[in-house]
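Form 7-S
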Amino acid sequence: MENVLKEFRERIQAAATARKALRIVGSGSKDWYGNVPQGELLDTRAYSGIVSYEPTELVVTARCGTPLLEIEAALAEHNQMFAFDPPHFGDGATLGGVVACGLSGPRRQAAGALRDFVLGAVLMDGKGEVLHFGGQVMKNVAGYDVSRLLTGSMGILGLMLEASIKVLPRPTAETTLRFAMSQAEALQHLNDWGGQPLPISASAWENNMLLVRLSGAVAAVNAARRKLGGEDVGKAAALWDDLREQRSAFFVDTSHIPLWRLSVPSTAQPLSLQGTQLIEWGGAQRWLRADLPAQQIRAAAEAVGGHATLFRGGDKHSGVFHPLTPTLAMLHRNVKDAFDPARIFNPGRLYADL
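Output:
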């Protein structure tokens, strides 16, 4: 792997000298996400492989180009998993791409977001230097915030070489319940249930139908099922996989109407926006299919203390991610300049001026 690192370093140093943009990419499974990619391709897949995996320590460390399927297969052998339930959006998805995009799946409602599980990272910066942040245990906090900062950075800070991720055991039992109720009723119930010791690991509301997944010990799942009632869906693993990978009917849209992702407080009331909605994470993540002005959608999200991202389709000229305040924009620029002074990594992918 030293030869691969040497090639990466030479490519980065040459690009920095020439002020030539580099487009960091793994399999390209998420090229559609974020602003339009720019620059000469820098493929990470040659730098692949699991560096270490200690099932008893619940930590896996792998290189950026390692296929996510390969890591998940190794975890499955020990009945463990990525608790944040990362979407693949393609069989070739790599660990580096997963961390760079920072996306989590349905289980994020209970387990937490991807950034909560990143223990450490190794980064090659804009000078070709290799920097180490964090470690392989939660108590090692040296540089821990930088490791988390890389999550969702869309590769604009540097070439992430490795990441150490905390994993968790798979739940012993799971079941999915279905309830017929309006959006307002679903949000009320989800927030009420969220304040109780119930093993809810995922939820999804659409078309006046609420789905709730229970995960955990057999006794806990059975007790929660009796308490909540509802209709038992039975074997529903494929349903949640389709939701995570956006293969369900709501996401497989042929009308080319833009898909927005709204992140709001779970207690926010139904948003008065025309279009169709699907609600996850106990009300905190709301998907919206709507051909509305970006300003109107973002204003609605801001009004309840949230933000909106143009997830798929639509006009990206107004920016994909929610506009930053002047102070946050300055902080973003300062961090970008510290790691990538020549501004060669994925320019504009996160925000136009980064």
